[in-house]
Design brief:
Mean pLDDT: 88
Pfam families: Response_reg, Trans_reg_C
GO cellular component, one term: cytosol
Radius of gyration: 20 Å
Distance between the termini: 21 Å
Protein name: Two-component system response regulator
Order of helices and strands: EHEHEHEHEHEEEEHHHEE
Largest sheet: 5 strands, parallel
CATH superfamily of the largest domain: Response regulator
Keywords: DNA-binding, Phosphoprotein, Transcription, Transcription regulation, Two-component regulatory system
DNA-binding region: 130-227
CATH topology of the largest domain: Rossmann fold
Number of helices: 8
CATH architecture of the largest domain: 3-Layer(aba) Sandwich
Low-confidence stretches: none
Number of domains: 2
């Protein structure tokens, strides 16, 4: 991972030895870590600490992981919750995801897998925190507002940067013109939606995407970036 300074993680488990093991590992990786031994303490701590990621055990006395997940998500700040369970039960996974969990891991798990899950959630929900993230041939440096494609820095306007970043971060998903306008130009945009076509055409030129194989058009639906 390129940079994790300033990224806050909260660990919640009623087993102190698990908390200690995970805390030492994550602190060594550079994360800012806080721990809680029960669900209610986790909810209270979350309000002040506002973690980017919560690693939350399901089975705890009192307020269990499911209820803690629901309460933390209700606080209102952006947070990714990875739930831990001792049993691989589909019903439990569905319940956790329905209450707002973003990912699920079954105990026992490797620390490397946990790191990979954390990084995946950060890339999805907090890409700017990572400084620079890589997706296929693209490198996005949100701090420098710079995108590198096939090892070449693209000359992009601020709007082109935001549009291409949005499409790369959502690669494989067809994005409608309305969704693009709402996200890149904001909801108060009063122009015509053909402005999206103009910017897509410009991006294709800068990406040398003459055959429209990178940025694909789905007539009546929108656009999709496909990565190798």
């Amino acid at each position: 991972m390129s940079a994790v300074k300033g990224i806050r993680i909260m660990l919640v488990d009623d087993e102190p030895h698990i908390l200690q093991f995970l805390e030492i590992g994550l602190v060594n990786e550079g994360y800012e870590v806080i721990t809680a031994l029960d669900g209610m303490s986790a909810v209270t701590l979350a309000q002040d600490f506002q973690p980017h990621v919560v690693i939350l055990d399901v089975m705890m006395p009192g307020v269990d992981g499911f209820e803690a997940c629901r309460m933390i998500k209700k606080i209102g700040f952006n947070v990714a919750i990875i739930m831990l369970t001792a049993k691989d039960d589909v019903e439990d996974r569905v319940k956790g995801l329905t209450l707002g969990a973003d990912d699920y891991m079954v105990k026992p798990f490797s620390f490397d897998e946990l790191l990979a899950r954390i990084q995946a959630r950060l890339r999805n929900q907090f890409p700017s925190l990572l400084g620079e993230v890589t997706y296929g041939p693209f490198q996005i440096d949100d701090r420098r507002k710079e995108i590198i494609y096939e090892q070449k820095v693209l000359e992009l306007s601020p709007t082109e940067y935001e549009l291409l970043k949005f499409m790369v971060l959502n690669h494989g998903i067809v994005l409608s013109k309305t969704k693009i306008l709402d996200t890149v130009w904001s909801y108060d945009f009063g122009g015509e939606d053909n402005i999206v076509e103009v910017y897509i055409r410009s991006l294709r030129e800068k990406l040398n995407d003459k055959g429209h194989q990178l940025i694909r058009t789905f007539r009546g639906s929108g656009y999709r970036i496909d990565l190798p």
